[in-house]
Amino acid sequence: MESSMNEQFESFEEVMSRLQQIMKMHYPGKDSGLTASQLFILRLLMHSEQAKASDIARASGLSPGAVTQVCDELVKEGLVQRTRSQDDRRVVHIQITDEGRAVFQKIRQTRSDKIKLILTRLGDHDAKEFVRIIGRVVDIVELEMDGQR
């Protein structure tokens, strides 16, 4: 049993290493010049009307200073904008711009096309099983993370 688990771990580690290398080489934001952090923030802002830097920091795991720096870069690129709250001038809201939406949608479409190709090549049964198993892995990891808090 122990030997089998070690073999599974070794196989898993090898596959994950190869997957990480492939993902670096074919990172969805690579052609647009966006970093993973920039793409994460754009994705977050696509799903919310606006967010404060502290909200983004909490959701991304980045420090508030790092969020500010990444947002500064996105503002320079015209992909997000900052506006002061009408209720409290100390609060700054970050929103995605129309250009930011267009850039994100283009990246998302490219990634979607690649994933659909992979799932098609897996076949219907294996694709469903793959998605089911990945979902279980995410659930387990989330439970573990919640238990550590």
TrEMBL record:
GO MF annotation, one: DNA binding
Pfam families the record matches: MarR
Matching SMART domains: HTH_MARR (SM00347)
Domain HTH marR-type, first and last residues per copy: 1-139
One of the GO BP terms on file: response to stress
Keywords: DNA-binding
Transmembrane segments: none
SUPFAM superfamilies per record: Winged helix' DNA-binding domain (SSF46785)
Family annotation (PANTHER family): HTH-TYPE TRANSCRIPTIONAL REPRESSOR YETL, TRANSCRIPTIONAL REGULATOR, MARR FAMILY
Name recorded for this polypeptide: HTH marR-type domain-containing protein
Organism in which the protein naturally occurs: Alicyclobacillus ferrooxydans
